[in-house]
Design a protein that fits this description.
Elements (H helix, E strand, L loop, with lengths): L8 H5 L3 E22 L4 E22 L5 E13 L1
Antiparallel strand pairs: 1-2, 2-3
Length: 83
């Protein structure tokens, strides 16, 4: 009986591959209006802003331990400010 050293059940089961997905965005907002309506409480919040800037950075990474198991984590940073 020969032993297959290249591909065995343990090697195929725990083949690790990773996926890294970075993304970023920058948006200039000239004018915005925001209405938040709470019908059950009969309450409405109104907000307005001019010349805003929005930044966003997202990085996520996942490791496939098996075809059915993946370890995944994400890091997100967002900033909104007025110019």
């Amino acid at each position: 009986m020969q032993r297959d050293t290249e591909a065995g059940p343990i090697r195929n089961c725990f083949a690790v591959s990773r996926i890294l997905n970075p993304s970023s965005s920058r948006v200039d907002i000239a004018k915005r209006h925001y209405f938040d309506e709470h019908y059950f409480r009969q309450l409405t919040f109104r907000d307005e802003g001019n010349y805003g800037r929005y930044y966003s950075v997202l990085v996520d990474i996942g490791y496939y331990l098996t075809s059915c198991a993946k370890v995944f984590t994400a890091l997100s940073w967002n900033k909104y400010g007025l110019c």
